[in-house]
Amino acid sequence: RRDRLGQAISWQRALESGQWAAWQPTGEPVRYRRSRIQQRLAAIEQAETGWDRALEDRPVWQVTYEALVEDPRATLQSALNWLDVDRLVDEPQLPMRRQADAVTAEWRAHWTAGI
Q1: What gap in Å lies between CA 23 and CA 5, rounded to an integer?
Q2: Which residues make Cβ contacts (< 8 Å) with residue 15, sequence separation at least 6?
Q3: Helices (H), 18-99
Q4: Please, are residues 34 and 110 in contact by the beta-carbon 8 Å criterion?
Q5: What is the pTM of this model?
Q6: Long-range contacts made by residues 13-19, C-beta under 8 angstroms, separation at least 24?
């Protein structure tokens, strides 16, 4: 994701609630904890650095969460183009729905305020 803070918030919420996808039942109540979000940010940074090092000499196709959510069909077509595949026989129906909501906005505001 380009928005790593959003990724960290989403990850922490999923860990606390047990709800990893919008189609899953609502999970446990969540509580803002800056230190836990900081841990997620550090883990994301470490993982991204590791992937960058591991793949630095290899041709890779990259996609962001934001691009996939914005236009799943175009993102899929871009991946197929990179693989030199003309088209899929059947276009998959992606069960995607953003989970960001008022709680996400509140946590982001707390983070930005240094709380």
Answers
A1: 23
A2: 36
A3: 34-55, 65-70, 72-82
A4: yes
A5: 0.83
A6: 13/99, 13/103, 13/104, 13/107, 19/99
Burial of 74 (0-12, 13-18, 19+ CB in 10 A): exposed
Number of H helices, E strands in the chain: 5, 0
Q: What is the pLDDT of residues 41-97, one digit of tens each?
A: 999 999 999 999 999 999 999 999 999 888 888 888 899 999 999 876 666 666 667
Q: Is 14 exposed, middle or buried (0-12, 13-18, 19+ CB in 10 A)?
A: middle
Tokens of 8: 């960290």
Region of residue 37 (left: phi > 0; alpha: psi -120 to 50; beta: else)? alpha
Query: Who contacts 91 (Cβ-Cβ below 8 Å, separation ≥6)?
Result: 73, 76
Angstrom CA distances, 99 to 7, 84, 92, stand at 11, 33, 21
Rounded CA Rg of the chain:
17
Closest CA to 95 of 2, 24, 28: 24
